[in-house]
Amino acid sequence: MPRIDPESVDQVRQVADLVELLRGRVELTRRSGRWWGRCPFHDERSPSFTILPDHRNYYCFGCGAKGDAITWMREREGAGSFNEAVEALAERFGIELRYAESSPQEYAARAATQRRTEVLGRARDFYSAYLWKSDEAAPARAYLIARGFSEDLLRSYGVGYAPRAGGLLAARALKQGYQRRDLAEAGLARDRGGSVQDFFTARIMFPIANARGQVQGFGGRTLDPNERAKYVNSPEGRTFQKRRLLFALDRARVSGAKLGWIAVCEGYTDVLALAKAGYDNAVACMGTSLTNEQLRLLARATDEVRLCFDGDRAGQEAVWRSVEAASGVAVRISAVPLPAGRDPGDLAGEETGLSALREVVENPEPMMSYLVRGRIDRSGCTAADREQAFGEIATLLARFPEGLEKDEALRIATGRLGLSAATEERLRRASVSGTDSNAPATRVAATSGLDVDEVRERRWLAMVVSLPDVSAEFVQIISDPGATFDRPEHRRAYELLASGVQVAGWPEDLAGLGVELRALTVQHPPTVDELREATYRLNERTIERRATSARERGDVEEFLEMRRMLGKFRQAIREARRVGIEVTAQRAADQARKQAAQDQLRLVEETFRKQERITQLMARF
User: Fold this and answer.
1) Global pTM?
2) Rounded to whole angstroms, how far apart are CA atoms 551 and 110?
3) How many CB atoms are closer than 10 A to CB 17?
4) Which of 176-185, 223-232, 361-370 has the lowest mean pLDDT?
């Protein structure tokens, strides 16, 4: 790559005004002769990020981030190299760059790159104009409008149409002075029998640009059901490398920096759907999952990535692969829980769907919790199935740092897999150290042949039996007993307890169950806080089932209502755990104070005894 003349680099540094460059990315206010704002490199409430008086350098007093305009372009604007950062600034501020002496080969390579960039930009304009002006594109226009996308929205994203006649774009480009090689290297045309043919024909076209807005290639969608490939992308080459590009990143990074998050979808129309819903901070990964390179691009633009993939099994597996690809990337990832079989493009077609889309996008689920729930839902009922899920969950959690979100995921795995205390500890160790979670150890609990949900039911009943003085209020909290208890004998036991009949008064056919319930809590009597959390978990499971059923039926309204109720119950569970932890800590502190007082009393008594012995010895003399 040719070296930019040092004097040109200095000129860029002098002319590039950071206030102008950062405005729109960071909310700046002027105070005491300086511009201040909340740091884009770390989370903070009070502004500690400042632009120095010369407007040439920035510094954060919170995290120590510092640099000039070139540093900013590389770390936050997606510039992949020093030269790319300098060239982008020169273009922005109208500076003509000079390059150090370079070989003819380097000069030719730079000129070829510039020609490719130009011809790709002109191709975008050609396709866009053809969509709106040609009769041939009428079915494409009708299709896009029927999907609920307005002309203004489609124009703003540069959506176009490639003509069926296979040489119109190439012929126009050749007349404008471009060479066949330019078109081939840009992925726009190919030689066929000595003639130049357009690469894309009879397809709706979506331009794919880099973070600076320079078109790097296209994605084309056919409307012909007989076509083998529904979508075709530009061929991989020097310019178009799909793993390093994201559709609409040039638009999304601006609002994504302001909002603090960017939504990632699978397809182009999903991005348009989110824009229709009011979110232009959305991109498409153009594949089944994100790559490490794409995640690094996103990390330069925002702090959080919200994965907006399909809610089916394939979508959950894509989320899983995306998380694996995020290794070493400093970005927070969450999941948008879409209804099964529905993607953003589907939801945007009707007003109720738009409301549903806004609801789930605004309320993403923590990534670890989402993955753990999904993996357990996909597991079978046998012990071997749960063992496999256990191992995969341990491997997943080991990738994440310790924190409240990880604790919540561990809680979910423990409850839904029905883990014993020993197995829960095994999972906790494996999730920290990454040790072999399949090493010989206590297996997943399968008490008396019960499945995971039935074990949870029986433990709750045992707690209620153990705490008769306080259990009445928790028995009444169960929202839907018929859906809460899977086993008939558990439902009958609940009905008896709800009627105030204790175990001693149960009928003979439930006597054995009563004995087992009393035995379950002999060694470890439950606390009220544990009963409260167990009650919330039972209700949480019931609502999860109703949400899943609504999602599978396509009942968006009920799905959203169940999601809201789930949020309330999960908040209640977190609060119950917090209170339990505080009570435990208070008890420990009281015990420590009591022990310290006893130790102090023993010390005083020992001192008195020693003093008495000394007095007795002195008396002898």
Assistant:
1) 0.64
2) 53
3) 16
4) 361-370
pLDDT recorded at residue 202: 95
Q: What is the pLDDT of residues 253-266, one digit of tens each?
A: 888 877 889 999 99
Asked if residue 604 has pLDDT above 50, the reply is: no
Contact 195, 168 (CB under 8 A): no
What tokens were used for 422?
């020993």
Distance CA 162, CA 123 (A): 10
**Residue 441 CB neighbour total at 10 angstroms:** 14
β-bridge mates for residue 304, sequence order? 261, 332
Neighbours of 35 (CB within 10 A): 21
CA dist 52 and 474 (Å) reads: 60
Name every residue whose Cβ is closer than 8 Å to that of residue 171 and which is 6 or more positions away in sequence. Answer: 196
Q: β-strand 261-265 against 282-284: which pairing, if any?
A: parallel
Strands 49-51 and 160-162: unpaired
How long is the chain? Answer: 621
Model pLDDT for residues 246-305, shown as the tens digit of each residue:
999 989 988 887 788 999 999 999 999 999 999 999 999 987 789 988 988 888 778 889
| DSSP letters for 35-83 | EEE--TTS--SS--EEE-TTSSEEEETTT--EEEHHHHHHHHS---SHH
What DSSP element (H or E) covers 610? Answer: helix 556-620
Output DSSP code: residue 60. Answer: E
Give the residue among 361, 315, 93, 80 at the shortest CA–CA distance from 212: 80
Number of other CB atoms surrounding residue 22 within 10 Å? 22
Structure tokens of 277? 């819903």
Number of Cβ within 10 Å of residue 578's Cβ equals 12
Chain segment 70-98, per-residue pLDDT in tens? 998 888 876 778 888 898 888 778 788 88
Residue with tokens 């760059």: 97
| DSSP assignments along 225-291, one per residue | TT-S-SEEEPPPSSS--GGG--BTHHHHHHHHHHHSEEEEESSHHHHHHHHHTT---EEE-SSSS--
